[in-house]
Specification:
mainly alpha
């Protein structure tokens, strides 16, 4: 999945808006991409690839071996230039991945509700800190 996304990112960014328009209009490419990437939301390498398409950055020029952290993502995309949205059609794809990830996280971390109990124990479901939690709940 990661290699296919890299190839697609490279095609969309290098060939420009003409290719993106054909990708979108001829076969509903962004809609299909959104549907297929939803279940792969938990693969960290897909996020910089999707963001590179959104921001119009060539994926071949980015170092994807960096840790998946906010500061590293910021450094990866900011560099010395300003960020501009190059392909806004990619935003629904990213939002679909976020929605799928949030849904999966909520379903995994949701406690079983006991009908005899009038309240749930919030301390049993809360994570002590972000570093000890993972998004998949496994």
């Amino acid at each position: 999945m990661v290699h296919a996304a890299k190839i697609l990112a490279r095609l969309l960014v290098v060939h420009g808006s003409g290719y993106s328009k054909k990708f979108s209009e001829k076969n509903g490419g962004y809609t299909v991409l959104s549907q297929h990437l939803k279940r792969w939301w938990n693969i960290p390498a897909l996020w910089p690839i999707c963001l590179s398409i959104l921001l119009g950055r060539d994926i071949a020029l980015l170092d994807l071996d960096r840790p998946f952290e906010v500061s590293e993502l910021r450094n990866l995309f900011l560099g010395d230039s300003q960020l501009q949205i190059a392909y806004p059609e990619m935003l629904p794809v990213i939002m679909g991945m976020l929605k799928s990830g949030l849904r999966s996280t909520v379903l995994v971390s949701e406690p079983a509700i006991d009908p005899d109990s009038s309240k749930t124990d919030a301390s049993s479901t809360a994570c002590p800190n972000m570093s000890s939690c993972n998004l998949t709940g496994k």
